[in-house]
Amino acid sequence: MLHPFFYLGRMMEMSGLVQQMVKIWSEDTGTDVGVNRLRALSGGSINQAFCLETSLGSFFLKYNTANRFPGMFEAEARGLRLLNNAGVIRIPNVVYVGSTQSHVFLILEFLDRSPQQKDFWETFGRKLAALHRCSSDQFGLDHSNYIGSLTQSNTGHIHWHTFFIEERLEPQLRLASNAGLISDSLTASFKTLFSRMVDMFPVEQPSLLHGDLWSGNFLIGPQGEPCLIDPAVYFGHREMDLAMTRLFGGFEAKFYRAYQEVWPLQSGWQERMDLCNLYPLMVHVNLFGGGYLSQVKDILRRFV
Fold first, then answer.
1. Taking a C-beta distance cutoff of 8 angstroms, is the pair 154, 257 a contact?
2. Residue 115: is its pLDDT beyond 50?
3. pTM score, two decimals?
C-alpha cells in the first residue's frame, strides 16, 4: 500500500502543474482566471481529467505529457468544433488548447449532469440522424486524428469501400501484424473480404460522424439532453456510428426507431453492423490484445 503522503505529494504536484496551465490560459487570452478547486474525475484511461473550478466558473480540464500523443488535443478540439458547428446536438464548447514545457492540455465547457429527459433516447436518435445529414464531397477529413490512443488517418476518398479498406482496416491490420497479434491466415481472410467489399455497402453521401460512438462517449446534459464527447470525427458511412452504438450492448430500441423515422437506413443495415464493427474491434485488438480476435474471426467467417 502506498503511503498517504504519496497521494498528498502527487496532488500538490498536479495542482502546481494546473496552476501553470491556467497562467498560460490567462496570459494568452488576457483574462484573469483564479483557481478555486481542482477535482479529479474518473473514467478516462488515456489522459488525466479534472473539474477545474475557477473564478469564471467550472471547466473540464484534461492533460498529458507533451510527447505522448502529438496533436491529440488539437485534433479533438477541431472535431468538437466541427460537431458543434452542425448545430443539431449538444457538444461541450472548446475553451482553450495549450501547452507548458512538459505537458499539453485541453479546457472545455463543463457540462453538469441531470436526470435524462423522458424522451431522451428518441431525441438522441433524431439528433444523430440530423448530424449525419451534414455532408462533404468525399469520405475522410482534412486532418488526421485519434481513436482512443491510436492515430486515425482520414485521407480523402471518393468511394466508401476504398476509404474503409485503406484508411480504417489496413492500418489496423499492419499494427496487429507487426505486433504479432494476428496470423497470416487471418490477414488472408481480410484480403478476401476486401476483394468483395465494393458491393457490400449501399451507396450514400458521406456523413459527419462522431466516429467513436459507444456508451462511454455521451453524457446526459444539464437539461437532461444527449451530449456527445470524445469524438474521432470524420465524414464516413453513417452505418459506422450506428454499428458502434451496438458493439458493447447497444442503446435502447427507442433510439434506433427514432433515427429510422428521420432518415431510414437502407435494407440490410442490421447485417452490415458487424462488418462496420471490424474497425473498432481491430482497434481494441491493437489497444488491449488478442481477446477481441474471436469476434473478428466470427465476423470474417460470416462475410468471407
1. no
2. yes
3. 0.94
Considering 119, 184, 199, 212, which one is annotated as catalytic?
212
In which region does residue 203 sit, left (phi positive, over 0), alpha (psi from -120 to 50) or beta (all else)? beta
Residue 212 appears among annotated catalytic residues: yes
- 13 pLDDT band, cuts 50/70/90, is low
d(CA 224, CA 1): 40
